[in-house]
Structure formats: C-alpha cells, structure tokens
Amino acid sequence: MMDFAYWLPIVWAVILVAAISIYVVLDGFDLGIGMLFAFERHPDRRDVMVNTIAPVWDGNETWMVLGGAVLYGVFPGAYSTLLPAFYLPIVLMLLALIFRGVAFEFRVMTRGTGREGMWNAGFMAGSGIAAFCQGAILGGVVQGIRVVDGAFAGGPLDFLTPFSVLCGLAVMCGYALLGATWLIWRTTGVLEASCRRWAARLAVGLFLGIVAVSLWTPLLHAPYLRRWTDWPNIVFVAPVPVLVVVLGGLFVMGLRRGHSKGPFLCALGWFFLCLSGLGITVWPYAVPPGLTLWDVSSPPSSQFFQLVGTAILLPIILTYTIYSYHVFRGKVTETDGYH
Amino acid sequence: MQYAHDPALLLARFQFAFTVGVHIIFPAFSIGLAAYLAVLEGLWLRTGRPVFLDLYRYWIRVFSIVFGMGVVSGLVMSYEFGTNWSIFSKKAGPITGVLLSYEVMTAFFLEAGFLGVMLFGMNKVGRKLHFAATCCVSLGTLISMTWILSSNSWMQTPRGYSIDPATGRFMPADWLAIIFNPSFPFRLVHMGLAAFLSVAFIVGATGAWHMLRARKEGKAASEPVRVMFSMAMWMAALVAPLQILAGDAHGLNTLKHQPVKIAAMEGDWVSEDHAPELLFGIPNMKTEHTDYALRLPLAGSLILTHSLNGRVPGMKDFPRDQRPPSPVIFFSFRIMVALGMLMMLVGLWSLWLRRNHTLFTNPVFHRVALCMAPAGFLALLCGWVTTEVGRQPWTVYGLLRTSDSVSPVALSSMAFSMTAFVVVYVLVFGSGLGILVRLLARAPHEGEHDTSPVHASDILGARMHPGVIDPSSGKGA
C-alpha cells in the first residue's frame, strides 16, 4: 500500500502535465488565432481563420475542463489552494473564454445586424485576456503561494508580480505564434504570407520571453537554482536549453523555405520544452514552495479508481479526436465551398 | 437554519446559484434537442422524407448556439467548486472530483469530438457516419447528465464513504454505493424527463407561432411546421404524465432520506397523521408558523404517504440549525408542480384535438402552446431550487455544512466577481437569447434539402457554419 501511495501521485502528475500540455498547444492556437484578429482586418480572411478551428475548438477547450476535474479529483489539496489563490485571474480567464467561445457562433449569427463587430472584438479581446491570465497563473504557481495549514493564506493580488506579468506576456506571444504557424499550415495565399511575417516577429518575442523567464525562474527559490546547476542534474537538464536553440534554427529554416507544417511543429516543440523545463524546476511540488504532490493527493482508492477509467478512456478519446482532425484536414480557403 | 450572516459566504452562494442556474438551462436544452435531432436524422434516413431533413437543418442551428453557451458556462462550473468552495472540494474532492472527471472523459470529449462532424461534416463523412456522430453527441449529453446527477445525488444522500478522522476528508469505500446512491435513480429520471419536456415545449411553441403566423397570412402551415408541432405535442402528452409519476416517486424518496426538506417544502411545522396539504401560505422561520395557510384536508398525507392517515414530518422535529429556508422552497416547489400540471393538461388537450382532427387548426390551442414555451425550463429551475436550497444548510447532507465549505476568498474579490459574472452573463446570454429568438422566428421552409448546384455534394455543411448555410439567414424575421 505504501508503494501504491507513492507511485499513484507520480503517475497522475505525468497524466495531468500531459493533459495541460495538450490543452496548451490545442487551445493555444485557437486563442492565438483570436489574438491575430488584431492584425488581420479583412472579413473574408477572418472567416477563414475561424473556419480552420471551428470544428475542433470545443474539443480543445475540453482538455481544460479535464485539467480542472483531474486536479479536483486527484489532487484536491492543490485544487483547493490554487484556485482561491488565483481567484481573480481565474474568474477573469473564465469570463474571457465565455466571450471567445460564444463569438464563434455569435459573430456569424449577428452578421448584417451591426453587432458583428462587437463579437469580433469579443473574440479578439477574450482570446488575449484568457492567454494572459493563463500565463500569469502559471507564473504565479511557479513563484509560489502562501499556504498555512493546507489553505491559501495570502491576499487577492499576491499573484500579480513582474514575474507573473512577464509570463503572461510570454504566453500571449507564444499562443499567437502557435496560431500564426497553424494558419501557415492550414491556409494559402495572402493570409499564409501574412502569417509568415507575423510568425517571424512573434518567434523573436517568444524567444526573448523564454530567455527572460528561464534566467529569472532559478532566482525565485534556491531549490530551483540547484535543480539546474547541481552535478549531476546538469547533465540531464542541459539538453533543454540546447534544444530550444536548435528548434529556433529549424524554425527560421522552415519559415524561409516555405515549409507548410515545419514552423508549427517547431512552435509545438518550444512549448513542449518550456513545459518540461517548468516541470523539472517545480518537481516534486504541486503547490510551491510548500506542498508536494503527496501532500495534496486524494486517497489511493480515489486515484486508483480514476486511473482505471483513464487508462481505458484516454486512448479512445485521443483516437476520435485525431479522427475529427482528420475529417477536417487540408487547406482552408475562401473559395473552397465553406462560404 | 443559520441565515449565513457572513456576507462573503452569502455572495459565494449567490454567485454559485446564479452561474449554475444559468448553466443548467443549456445542458438541459442540449439533452433534449440532441435526442430530437438524432430522432429526426434517423427518421430521415429510414423514410427518406425530406421534411425530417428540413427540421434537422432548422434545429441544428439552434443546437449549435445552445451547445456553445453550455460549454462556456459549464467551464465556469468546473473551476467554481475550487474558487468558491475550496474546503468542500478538498474534503469531498476524492469523491465528487472523481465523478466529475469521469463525466469529462466519458461525456464531454464524446460530445465535443463529434460536434464538429455533426455541425460541419455531412458532406465530408457520408450520411450514416454523420448519423452516428449525431447519436454520439446525443449519447454524450445523456452520459454527462448521468454522472453529474450521481455526484449531485451523492451530496444529497451520501453513501459508500468513510471520514478520515485526521483530515475530515471523505474517503471512498465503495464506488458502486457512491455512484448508485439512494436518490440518484429518482433524480436522474426526473431530470431527464424534465429536459425532454422543456425542449418539447420550446419546439411546440415554435410550431404554434408559425401556425399562428401562417393563419394570419391566410396560408396553410407548411409541412415542417405541422410535423414539429405534432411531434412536440406527442412528447408533451406522453412525457408530462410520466413526469408527474416520476416526481411523486422522487418525493417519496426524499421523504425517506431528507424528511426535513419535505417538511420545509410543505410548510409543515408539527408532524401529524391525517396531515392537510397547504395550497398557499407564508412560512415564517422565526415564529415557526405558516401564516395565511390555505389547507386542503388529508391531502398532505395522501400525497406524501399515499394513505389518508400517513405520518407527515414537521420542521419542529428538527433543530433550528438544520432546517432549510422554507419560504423559498415552499413556493419554488408549488410553482414547479403547477407548471407540471399545466404541461400535462396541454398534452391531454392535444390528444383530444388530435382525435377531432383540429390539432393544426385550433388557434386558441396554438396561443396556449406559444405561452407555454418557457414552462418546462421554469419548472426545471424551480425544481432545481427546491432540491438544492432544500439541501441547506449542508453541502454534503448531514455531514458538511455550507458555512464550513466556503473558500478563504476576500469579500472584495467575491463582490468584484459577482458583479462581473452578472454583467457578462446578462450581456452574453441575453444576446444569445436574442439570437435564438430571431432564429426561431424564421419559419423552416420546405425544400431546404434541395441543395443548389453550388453545394451539390453537400447536405448540411456546404458552408462551414450552419448559421450561414441558408440563403435567407441573417435577414431575421
């Protein structure tokens, strides 16, 4: 039983990080496309942008519901301390996601009534605010929260620091890059050309953001610094920054040579490396700086029951999610019958 | 009952009630409408009659709006347990969090995964596969309802747990006992029928409206309008009486497991045999008396125990700090029952008219059916208020108090979020309602299935968005 209680939280941490990663990249390009409305004003091209994600955004957002539910069922100690700690940015993010979500339907349904502009603005602002809040919350978790007796004991604006703001901006930049590279893959013509230009600038922004966050994070807590500098850890963690630079080179090549999927895959790689880096930094804490995975876990009977279902259901979910993407594969254009 | 003097607690409760009250409308709408769409598409595939495809295309636009609003308002709920009720989620999360996770994995992904194919994919996957997608979405809504009602019922009638003495956490001991707790089957049936009935009355009112309009213009109602009205009235006639039986059974179950809830619903203070039923009254929690009571002798015992001398509980049997607020649920319960009776009468009336072949020609009936549009949803909300407020002052019935469940969130944050939720919900869901009304005000036309040469290969998804398939959409009515 002791081993069970030790290993189950680790297995669940891996599943949760995987679910969050899937959410981040899938809804990342959705939210990025919303933000790119700021650069693309042409109504037809905006429709193409939305049409590349209209059939799949629902499923993408469901990964976030899964993240919340898994945290609630498997790590209730984390759910019940993190959510009150980030009360304001979470509420703001949820409200922003409401605007973003309904705008898919409403901007089309209100076409010709003069109110479409409002929902386009809601789509854009909702995406941007949600992205910023997600980054700020992530930054806030890394910098840690004040916990007394297993409950959040800080103030409502504790999360708001230069570090969390930097993380918020970096995530906005990263999502916009995911959106732009997704559109390079899925569109043609003027829109694709614009996206290549935007992607180049956004990649520079994200790269600077990654460097800044990477240099700042180890200074937040002493264990973070040791994780990255102590021997022999350094042998295992050094590939992460090296790969970030290598992917940067591949990205520039892909963009210049007109690759269709390459830039998107590089952006995905960057997100994967950043999330891995964060995981390495924070491990084994669920709520830094005080609560470990085991401190916040639900009893093994809960974690095991949920694991059985997950082991069966997650592969099925992934299968039909991939099927759904497969049905709507290929380039989306203004003239291919969608409009 | 402690009337939560702490303003932060009061705001947390009000915010949760408001957000869940708005949310519950959309999944209930989706449950009913997805099933209706699956039936329509199935009938179309089987009979080949174009009217079913016309109706499918008409209602899928509504579905895409309603489902979207359900997704975004539901996302709020999955985080609000933690933001507003962190102590509850910490203690009960090992049980309710796991049930919610199963809901996400078995239902939400299924719905979201096949929704894209359902809305946009008919020209891409073929008819049978598209029908399978519609069925998957409908199945997803039903599975979702099952899990969330299991979780909700567990909070009302907790079973299969032990309490960890060190932390006060609920530890799962028997998952089958947790999932199939005593009130779950009754709640599931009652809620499922409520969802079907609510949608039946929306569909019926839409049909009635278009028949009244056609009559005003001196035309006969089109076939799709008549078919949708007829289907809706069949549903009302069959389901409304069933719902009353289900509600009665649920009431007996509640009497067994939560007698004080029944006493508060009935405004009864002293337990008695040969109890009367109060048709009206104003329960007063302070004086422990129901003022202005209008009594129907013996009916209370008859309804609650199915015998004239059955013993009916009173609130005085229970300590003051364990009584739910009777003035709220006394009325919400009565409004629900009254609406249920009205819906049954409409259903029976439709049978009578159908027998006389005047179902499509009686304008008085059409006006009544139009007015009954919100009846199902209002009854559903009243029922929800009755069962949830009736659970007070507990979150986990008899075990964890609401006042001990709330998050340590500053009053200022709570006030800010409450304001923001109200403003955003009124704006967003108000606009959504406006869009729905505009969609429904446009008559479904016959021959919507005749695809123009541009969309020759396509049935539904010629254009990416279902709202713009139809050349006349956007003009409104």
TrEMBL record, chain A:
UniProt key word Iron: no
Pfam families linked: Cyt_bd_oxida_II (PF02322)
GO cellular component, one term: cytochrome complex
Entry keyword Secreted: no
Compartments where found: Cell membrane
GO terms assigned for molecular function: electron transfer activity; oxidoreductase activity, acting on diphenols and related substances as donors, oxygen as acceptor
InterPro entries xrefs: Cyt-d_oxidase_su2
GO biological process, one term: aerobic electron transport chain
Keyword terms of this UniProt record: Cell membrane, Membrane, Transmembrane, Transmembrane helix
Transmembrane segments: 6-39, 85-106, 118-142, 162-186, 198-219, 231-252, 264-284, 304-323
Segment forming the signal sequence: none
Topological category with respect to the lipid bilayer: Multi-pass membrane protein
Family: Belongs to the cytochrome ubiquinol oxidase subunit 2 family.
NCBIfam families the record matches: cydB
Protein name: Cytochrome bd ubiquinol oxidase subunit II
Automatic annotation (TrEMBL), chain B:
Compartment(s) of residence: Cell inner membrane; Cell membrane
Entry's Gene Ontology molecular function annotations: electron transfer activity; heme binding; metal ion binding; oxidoreductase activity, acting on diphenols and related substances as donors, oxygen as acceptor
Keyword match Transmembrane helix: yes
Superkingdom of origin organism: Bacteria
Keywords: Cell membrane, Electron transport, Heme, Iron, Membrane, Metal-binding, Transmembrane, Transmembrane helix, Transport
Chief place where the protein resides: membrane
Membrane topology according to the record: Multi-pass membrane protein
TM regions (residue ranges): 16-37, 58-79, 99-122, 129-149, 188-212, 224-246, 328-352, 364-386, 406-437
GO CC, any one term: plasma membrane
A GO biological process held by the record: aerobic electron transport chain
One Pfam family of this chain: Cyt_bd_oxida_I
Family statement: Belongs to the cytochrome ubiquinol oxidase subunit 1 family.
Protein name (record): Cytochrome ubiquinol oxidase subunit I
